[in-house]
Design goal:
Blueprint (H helix, E strand, L loop, with lengths): L13 E6 L7 E5 L15 E5 L21 E6 L4 H14 L3 E5 L8 H7 L8 E4 L2 H10 L3 E5 L6 E2 L13 E5 L8 H5 L3 E4 L11 H14 L1
Parallel strand pairs: 4-5, 4-9, 5-6, 7-9, 7-10, 8-10
Antiparallel strand pairs: 1-2, 1-3
Length: about 220
């Protein structure tokens, strides 16, 4: 749907449309009141509404409380260059129950409209602090009694799924992720108590930072 003029709307406004041209049959969700949806954005033929979802139940409720004794986890984002990654991380933090996000170096903050747009409001429910220097962040957290764990491919790293973050009675945990190209600052990595990696089976050596961090956060909070 390259070049599609479809606009965002509330989820309950959406229906499913299908192109009436048998050689196309593009199927897509769009607001029922949107005039552009009546024309297929791929071939230009007319479309028709094929499904109106039942919204009478008010939507699926996916909320599930954290385990009663879940550990306190915060995030340290070390020079994340993509504003979209930052926004996505805020959504993960909000969804998982992360307590705070520390934005270091060149990492964009929610004052950037692109971060706020990708976060979809999650930045309003997760406290955050901006730091110019990630090492200063690490020193501050260590002085406050935090444990520092990094997600990184390093010789001393251990498999994420063997790690246990403990309980609410343990010192709070700050989970560190680094730049999409260079990884975690070596001096910051040296300050970490533990380094974890997500096992990879394919040709690539790492996941996108948002995926790796999301995997780690949910494992550490819910396992």
């Amino acid at each position: 749907m390259n070049g599609s003029p479809l606009e965002p709307a509330q989820a309950h406004d959406y229906v499913w449309w299908q192109c009436t041209h048998e050689g196309c049959r593009l199927r897509f969700p769009a607001p029922e009141h949107l005039p552009q949806a009546k024309v297929c954005p791929t071939c230009g033929a007319t479309t028709a509404v094929v499904v109106r979802p039942d919204n009478s139940h008010g939507g699926h409720v996916s909320h599930h409380p954290l385990p009663a004794n879940a550990p306190h986890i915060e995030l340290v984002l070390d020079n994340i260059r993509s504003v979209h990654n930052v926004g996505s991380i805020f959504r993960t933090a909000d969804g998982a129950g992360v307590r705070h996000v520390h934005l270091c170096g060149i990492t964009a903050t929610p004052t950037n409209p692109k971060v706020a747009k990708t976060a979809l409001g999650a930045h309003e429910s997760v406290p955050w602090t901006a730091w110019r220097n990630s090492l200063d962040t690490a020193v501050f957290l260590r002085q406050k009694g935090y444990r520092l764990w990094a997600i990184e491919d390093a010789p001393t790293a251990v498999v994420l799924f063997g790690a246990n973050a403990g309980t609410a009675a343990d010192p709070p945990l700050a989970l560190v992720v680094g730049n999409e190209v260079t990884g975690v600052d070596p001096d910051l990595l040296a300050l970490c108590d533990r380094i974890l990696f997500v096992p990879m089976q394919g040709r690539k050596r790492s996941l996108n930072v948002t995926i790796a961090l999301g995997t780690a956060v949910y494992h550490l909070l819910y396992s």
